[in-house]
Every structure is written in structure tokens, then in C-alpha cells.
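Morning run. Coffee first, then this:
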Amino acid sequence: MKNQPLLKSFQLGSILLKNRIVMAPMTRSRAVNPETAAGDLQVTYYSQRASAGLIISEGTPVSPQGVGYINIPGIYSEAQVAGWQKVTQAVHNKEGKIFAQIWHVGRISHPDFHNGDLPVGPSAINPNDKVFTAEGFKETVTPRALETAEIKAIVQDFKNAAANAVKAGFDGIEIHASNGYLFHQFFNTCSNQRTDEYGGSIENRTRFLFEVLDAVKEVIDLNRVGVRLNPSLHGMFGIFVDEETIPTFEHIVKRLNDYNLAYLHLSEPFTPVDKVPFAVKEIAKHFRPLYQGTLMINKGFTRETGNQVIADGLADLVAYGVPFIANPDLVQRFEQETDLNTPDPATFYTSDIKGYIDYPALAEVTIAV
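And here it is:
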């Protein structure tokens, strides 16, 4: 396709993106150090991919309580901020743009991460899933329900993380309100059975997200803040769609129009939902008319389908995950319409350079030939 929509520049708030190809946030579990800080591996990994219009970092926990995976770089300590500063500088040296995805996993965790204490959630409901610990996969447990005052404290954790992201040199932040993690647990009735101001009505179950947005805008302009949602997630991470799910997300999306965000990042369904009552099968098509700002979409797009969704006016930006793992120069490969490297799933979450920074770029392949 000549004159590909994906390759056109885009004005994202006050930031000019050189193209509309976004590197999606992806957990890679390579922060193997006592501080769980980004290091030289992350510097190389992200800078290799700086040709993306925008990079969204892997989820970075806002506090020790927010951790649920091994070797994930956080954003709550001075050492972690210093580590991310090296990453952002390397990306900027290659004229790239990078947002930090800030994260709290809630009940998708395990006592192993919390010195034997229970993970927390809106309600004491086990997601009946598995989490990857230092000793391998373990079954989730029933979390401890957060006290109302504790939720207010987590709002401040997100505000502090946003301030740390600014200090670390990120161009913006993305609030991870998706994929069964803490915000998502508040949204859905299958995981939130609270009776206080954070439970019951749609307004109450979404209150936490908007309190966080109101808090972070004190330390970062909202036109540098994105929000990620996964409305039709079903049967994963303990989340199930019911009759209130889509109305809840419609409420969120409509209300986000008042916040002048950098973007709204939506995921198409992770699993088939054709036969799931109340689920929406085509997320971009359903929510595009409801949202007046910049819309980013992800989940399984190719070069062809990514160009098409922009041409059809259903999205402004397209986020690519796995293709960026195996193709540090994905933008160039799209430009030249060349084949992509094949990713190796066995190395997605290991701890060394293999499958992380050793995938060849086109220039290296050409030289080898």
C-alpha cells in the first residue's frame, strides 16, 4: 500500500508523532536486580524500537503493593526513576517518544510478592487464575478487600508515580485500567461487591479511575495522559462480561471526553466473544462514536488491517505488541512491506538478552546476506 495511513505523522496533544505506529506496553521481566529498576538491557531494548511513533513502556508498578510479576521495573523509588531516566534519554537521543504505563495489579498477585501478606482488591473474591512467581506459576488466592482509606492512599501512589514519570523524562503516562488489574476489578461486578462509595452503582465503581485522573493532573498535563481499557475482556484474569459491563465502559468513555486526554487506548477482545451475552465484538467500531478525542486500538493488527482501521476512521493510532518484540525496526519493515521476523514465545518472559535485544534489524540481515 502506497502512502500508508500508519506512516503519516500525528499531533498527539502537544507532541508530534512521526508516525501512527505505537509500540504497545508489554511485560518482559528483565529487571533482574535488587531495586527492580530498568537497566542497560531496557536502555537497549527501548532505544532499538525508537522509530515507533510512540513507545508505551511495560507496566511499571506504582508501589510494592502493586507488584504481581517477577522482575518488573517499578516507578516508586529513586533508583527506579534513575533507571528509567537512562531509558528515556536513549529513546530521545533517537528522536523517539515514550510514555510510562503506570500500574497496580490488585488481586492478580500472590503473597510471595508481599512478604506473605495477601494481595488486595476491591472485594475478597479470588480471580481463580495463576501468577508467575520466582518459583514458577502459582494459583491466585482470595485477596484482602481494601479499606476505603486505603483506596485514597493508592490514588496518591498513582499521583506520585506520575510525578516520578515526569522526573524520569517520560513524554507522558498511560494509566493501565485494563486486563483484569486493579481499576478493571473495580469496574466489574464480578470482582467488586463493595457497599461503600466505590461499589454498587456504575458511578461508584468507576470513581477510583476519575479520582486518579483528578490527582495526576496536578503533576502532569492531561494532554500527556492516556487511559487503557479492555471492555470485552471475558474469561481471563477473573473478569467476566455481564449486563452491566458495556454500560459501565460506555459511561467511562463518555466521561473521559471531559478530560482532554492524550488518547484513549482500547483493546479488541482477547478471546472470541460472539457467543458471550452482552459483550461487544467490535470495540473500535462501538466506541469510536462515543469518544471525541484521539483513539488508539490494539490486539492482533497487521500492517494491512492497521492501515485499514485508520483509513476507515475507526482509530487514529494502532498499537502493536508481539510484532515489536521480534522486529525492532517494525516501522521500516512496514515502510518497505517486507517480511517480519518470527517471535519466540519461549523467551518472552525470560531474564537475559535472548529473545529481547538480539532480533536482527533489516540492515543486519542485508549485511549478513
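The CA atoms of residues 139 and 225 lie 34 Å apart. Good start to the day.
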